């Protein structure tokens, strides 16, 4: 029996944690999910920073240290800087056990020519997360979103598709359903984690697009 790929689960009751929630991308994701009605907890290395960011955002968002955020959340989005990615996950292996983890980190370098993709030893940030969190259900998503648009209160809809990758369809369905909670946004299944590198790397191209056209470009997948 095949399942309808457009038939997604009800995720309205899930608690969404955002590790790195005091950074631009993390704050933007926290704001959009809370605005859509999800219970959201922001995580940071310092609880005080997370609490301050949560208070600024409002919408019932809470702030906590990373470990508490991970423990209290059903779905945990990893939005930390690439240079702190491995250390953060290594320290939270126990708290993230059994959790649905969504990695949205883009390993990038920058030089005078602009942004360029880095390739981690494991293949991608998401595959590094899977290697460091063997007891978690690791997926990859939310890479191509503009932090500026996410945080802009005047923007009603985020006009973009979200590429979702993972090993288990039940997990990617949940992430797709979470993406669909945000007006204008759609989650699209895009394969297994081994395909995450090219998804993460595409952000370097989007940065070039945005600089050239002074835009906040996203992606749309056609014919589905």
Fold and architecture overview:
By secondary structure, the protein is α/β, with parallel strands linked by helices. Helix content is 36%, strand content 21%. It has 8 helices and 10 strands. It has helices spanning 24-35, 47-57, 66-72, 85-91, 125-132, 147-151, 169-180, 196-213; strands spanning 15-19, 39-44, 62-65, 75-78, 100-103, 108-111, 114-117, 137-140, 160-166, 185-189. The strands form 2 sheets. The protein has an 8-stranded mixed beta sheet. Strands 6-7 form a two-stranded antiparallel ribbon. Strand 2, helix 2 (47-57) and strand 3 form a beta-alpha-beta unit. The longest helix has 18 residues, at 196-213. The two termini are 21 Å apart. 44% of the residues are buried. The mean pLDDT is 95.
- How would a textbook summarize the main sheet? 8 strands, mixed
Question: Got a strand count?
Answer: 10
| Radius of gyration, whole Å | 16 Å
Q: Provide the β-strand percentage band.
A: 15-25%
Tertiary shape: globular
Question: Helicity level, as a percent range?
Answer: 25-40%
Number of helices: 8
Spatial order of the strands in the main sheet? 3-2-1-4-5-8-9-10
Taking all residues together, what is the mean pLDDT? Answer: 95
């Amino acid at each position: 029996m095949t399942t309808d790929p457009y038939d997604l689960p009800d995720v309205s009751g899930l608690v969404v944690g955002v590790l790195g929630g005091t950074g631009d991308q993390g704050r933007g994701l926290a704001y959009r999910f809370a605005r859509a009605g999800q219970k959201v907890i922001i995580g940071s290395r310092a609880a005080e920073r997370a609490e301050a960011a949560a208070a600024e955002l409002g919408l019932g968002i809470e702030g906590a240290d990373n470990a508490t955020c991970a423990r209290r959340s059903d779905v945990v989005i990893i939005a930390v800087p690439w240079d702190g990615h491995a250390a953060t996950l290594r320290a939270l292996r126990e708290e993230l056990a059994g959790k649905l983890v969504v990695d949205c980190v883009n390993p990038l370098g920058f030089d005078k020519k602009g942004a360029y993709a880095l390739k981690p030893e494991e293949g991608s940030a998401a595959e590094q997360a899977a290697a460091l969190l063997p007891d978690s259900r690791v997926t990859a998503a939310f890479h191509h979103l503009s932090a500026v648009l996410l945080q802009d209160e005047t923007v009603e809809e985020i006009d973009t598709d979200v590429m979702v990758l993972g090993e288990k369809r039940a997990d990617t369905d949940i992430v797709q359903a979470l993406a669909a909670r945000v007006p204008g946004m759609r989650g699209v299944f895009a394969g297994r984690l081994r395909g995450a590198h090219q998804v993460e790397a595409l952000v370097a191209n989007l940065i070039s697009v945005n600089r050239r056209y002074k835009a906040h470009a996203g992606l749309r997948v056609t014919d589905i």
